[in-house]
Amino acid sequence: MTTAHRRLLGLALLVGLTAAASTGTAQVEAEFADEFDAPAQPKPQPQPQPQPTAQPAPAPQPQPKHETEVVYVQTNEHTHDAEQVELAPPEDPAARALRASNSWKGPVGGIHVIDAGSGRPGTFRLQLGVDFFSSSDFLILGDENDYFGGTLSLSWTVSDFLELYASLDNHANENTLERPALLQVLGDTRLGTKLFHRALPWLNLAGDVRLVVLNAVGDIGPVLEGTSVGFRASVSADLRELNEPVPLILRGNLGYFFDNSAQLIEGVEDARYEALGADRRDRIDEDRHLVRRVERFALGINRIDALTPALGLEAPLRAGDDFYIHPILEWWVSVPVNRQDYSCLLLPTAAGPGDPDGCLEEEGFSAMSSTLTIAARAFPPVRGLSFAAGVDIGVSGTSTFVRELAPNRPYAVLLAMSYAVDPAVGPAGPPEVREVVKEVVKEPPPKPRIAGTVADRATGGPIAGAAVRYVDLGLTTQQTDAAGLFTSYEMDPGQVVLEVSHPDYESSRCAVLVPEPTPEADEPGAAAPAAPTPPAPVGPMAAPPPAEPAASEATAASGGSAEGLLLTLRCELTALPKRGQVRGLVSDQAGKPVMGARVQIRGVADHDVVSDAAGQFLLSDVPAGNYTAQAEADGYLIKLITFQVPPRGLAAPQLQLLEKPKKASVQLTKQEVRIRKQIHFMTNSAEISARSHTLLSEIADVLLRNPHVKRVEVQGHTDNRGATDLNARLSQARAEAVRDWLVSAGIAPDRLTAKGYGDTRPLVPNITDRNRAKNRRVQFIIREKE
User: Fold this and answer.
1) Phi-psi category of 494—alpha, beta or left, where left has phi over 0 and alpha has psi -120 to 50?
2) Mean pLDDT of all residues in 615-632
3) Under 8 Å CB-to-CB from 481, ≥6 apart: which residues?
4) Going along 471-524, which residue ranges are E strands?
5) Which of 282, 615, 666, 706 is most buried per CB count within 10 Å?
6) What Å distances lie between residue 217 and 172, 186, 266, 291, CA to CA?
7) Average pLDDT in the 460-472 region?
8) Are 229 and 258 a contacting pair, CB within 8 Å?
9) Span 665-721, pLDDT tens digits
10) What pLDDT is stored for residue 439 in this prediction?
11) Is residue 678 within 8 Å of residue 696, measured between CB atoms?
């Protein structure tokens, strides 16, 4: 077979695919041939009238039909001459959605980087792509390598969160130094599903899973053992959806591919190994039976998995009327992951075109496949039709070859034709000219609205979240915004009464008088409008309208007739008292109630209570704020805690009392608060041991019972073992830990200071373990008292 025949055989791989698509292509051209005559730009549309803040947004209006009308305008006074009115809508979302195209292997996206979104629900897309290149000295020095491939892909947007896709791949590779020279892959199939979600109007998130079914080498039919699976997470940002649109789409993918393609050649390598006969070495030392790099490239054989990050950007640019060009730039890399635990024969090699295959462990990134794609997709005026052209440029993996991976192409030319169909949107036809008679109904003039402010009567500050109810009007209640503002519905003439309420304020009624409309000057018999009289303000509804109301004020914000007036209203509310309740509990260490405990509540207001038989105490009408509760009972140590009373809420402080020890461990003298036990810490640490908490509670009890002791220095001391500076830092840290514990127990911070003296003040010489234990201590020296 000559080289020309082999190339013709490779090109024949696409004949079936091209024939399958030709009928659909011809139908597309016939169906949409007249769309090239579509008119250019729409006329400006009138701006809609603003709606009240609490009124639901109006339903979206249907797009006007693209047509030219001859309109006879009929009014009550005149009949005007016929006039030409051309209505042409701007690009609607359906047209933009039809520019969503398949990526090379099926899912919607760029060329290789997929999009985290999709088309409109119900749309489907068909794409036929071919890729080819020709190179010399690529896989083997002195070779000539020709590659030609074709991919047919289909994607279907099932719903607004689900897309299904599939692709069929055929390709042929001819290398003049390989035997056989021509290797073909027929019918590799992938099936996938993508779930996507619009997190923001311009941001989409997606995840997809795909199943890749590979055909047997040298045969037709799938090999189940070679079936591979890929998972991928995607994010895309369509900057056209921003408040200030930018024609740019950013995409990012991160996938993992469980590659089982090596299963296809296991039988081939086994047969080759047996064919070596008696000359063969042990399998672990033999490499002559392994498939060669040309075979791995032509058949797409990888012995290990891949982690595949990818980035892409696309710029949707309008080149003319109904004509768009999308330049595309993408980069992806395949990072090998040896899930199969494949062990390469570590034979010395340079792994280049003139050398034996190397191993990934030695060659590293230069053997990994990474590719840069530069392409553009064109969308002519035929709706749904697009063409793509581009080139893949191999960045790595094109000249360093390892046994684990298929080589990467040095470059490849990409050509594709796509067609998208939206069954819910029919094709645009030629402009339609018809005569109609329309009666122009004059819109009623806009009615006045109320621009209201709800404020605190005492401070004048805005009240957010206040409910505004329209008394006896049956309108939906509105709510003030963060600035205390609201805008009413359109109001009929007469008195409008509003009831304003808020959980933190007393409810109030405010009113405003909406004036009667004045006649238009151009109406028959209409008099010239007089100067407007501001509506009379109406105050609180408990009394007749006063001349200057205290709770509400209403004025006209614009002159002229009553139509279009914005009536300002200020309604003030009186704040409710911010008081709450206290329901406390006094118990012992076992959780049993302590009856008769004397509890002192100090804070915004002071209260003294005694716990009942259940150990509880209750206070009502307590001003909101921060408080301390100190409980004292016979036979128990004093307990002090802090708590907060919320406005119109309930505080539930719990005080757990410790019984006094039978023999006191703490004694108050003139110079110090003397302790009979040591405060224990964790070794070489400032963390206080739990067994010393009772002793610290006794110290807190003595200080709480003796408020005349104004200031105490908490001293930390160590023995002489260890470095002097280390001992100084440790003693300081331990003194501060004790001070912090006592502050948390209710001792005022300004009564305590912490000072570490290290090993500079021993009580006894540091010559025995007993003496050193005495020197490791905490002392409480009184520095000030009344």
Assistant:
1) left
2) 91
3) 53, 464
4) 478-479, 485-487, 494-502, 505-514
5) 615
6) 13, 9, 10, 12
7) 92
8) yes
9) 899 999 999 998 899 999 889 999 999 999 999 999 999 999 999 999 999 999 998
10) 65
11) no
